[in-house]
Write a structure and sequence with these properties.
single chain, alpha/beta, 5-stranded parallel sheet, 11 helices, 26% helix
Length: 311
């Protein structure tokens, strides 16, 4: 049984409070966001039994870069405007190469056993050959925290995993269970699916302006402004759909009905930071080509159209 994971829906996460590094974090280094949340926001109860303890209701651990369909509905929010954060760019998120390998994503599940537990490894390999599901065996036997999700690591591209695991995963035929050894122990891994990686690009305001002179641009692309309504009232650009970041809990779970993941998607904010957060998240939801508007509407006003108010 393929288990759909809720852990890799949001690319806005806090570091694990675990004092020792987790194998899965080393396999797939997650995006990290350090936030100062308003105290009035609801908090999610913490669990001391997991190395992936949630710090707030806005964030959850992920295996980047994951996920392009929802496994469940959620009203968790990404970081709020003005939050202090730092972003580590995962390779899958920013793949712009046209090469067949670097532009390829694979959906991987695995289980991990200790290096000296080869007897168990061979037994589990035999059981999968007899028809048992790898995800069920991962729940029971894996020593990786991903066992809670049936060993599901989510969608990954090259550069996100330790070299031995990456080499085995990207050479593995679809659905075939293969084994490999890393510094964490022995893995049985299975590639469930593959697809072309999504692309995140930056576009300068001047280039956006040129595109907007063509009326067909508004039909072929979709434009999102993630600023707050009071900001949009001060300064705006034509054709942009307003999806405020602070209201993510309302529109995020319904993004598949609001936007077309196959269309080129342009994301705007005040200075280009909130839009970057949303652009990264859209990638995790399967949007094939996402453009973050560099400098936001402020830079557009300064470099393109001085008649637009700045604030």
């Amino acid at each position: 049984m393929l288990r759909a994971s809720s852990l890799h829906r949001f690319p806005f996460v806090l570091p694990s409070p675990s004092p020792s590094p987790s194998p899965i974090l080393a396999l797939l280094p997650a995006l990290a966001v350090h936030e100062n949340f308003p105290s009035s926001l609801p908090r999610k109860p913490q669990s001391s039994s997991s190395p992936f303890r949630l710090r707030s209701s806005h964030s959850s651990p992920i295996y980047p870069h994951s996920y392009h369909t929802f496994s469940s509905k959620s009203n968790w929010l990404p970081p709020m405007a003005g939050a202090q954060f730092s972003i580590t760019k995962a390779a899958a998120s920013f793949s712009s190469s046209s090469g067949s390998e670097s532009g390829r994503e694979i959906l991987v599940q695995h289980l991990l056993v200790k290096e000296d537990d080869q007897k168990l490894l061979l037994e589990l390999l035999k059981r999968t050959a007899e028809g048992e599901d790898l995800s069920d065996l991962a729940v029971e036997y894996s020593i990786c925290p991903s066992k809670q999700e049936g060993g599901m690591l989510g969608w990954v591209t090259k550069g996100q995993m330790v070299p031995e695991f990456e080499e085995a995963a990207f050479k593995a035929p679809l659905n075939k269970i293969v084994r490999c050894k890393t510094k964490f122990g022995w893995h049985l891994l299975q590639v469930i699916s593959e697809r072309e990686a999504s692309v995140l690009q930056y576009i300068q305001p001047t280039e956006l302006h040129e595109k907007m002179q063509d009326p067909s641009f508004f039909e072929e692309a979709q434009l999102i402004d993630v600023r707050e309504p009071d900001e949009v009232a001060i300064a705006s650009l034509p054709g942009f759909k307003v999806l405020p970041l602070r209201q993510f809990g309302n529109w995020g779970p319904e993004i598949e009905t609001k936007l077309d993941s196959q269309k080129d998607t342009y994301v705007l904010c005040h200075h280009g930071m909130r839009s970057l957060q949303v652009a990264q998240w859209l990638q995790t939801q399967g949007f094939k080509k996402v453009f973050n508007i560099s400098g936001g509407i402020h830079e557009y006003a300064v470099k393109v159209d001085p008649s637009i108010p700045t604030y």
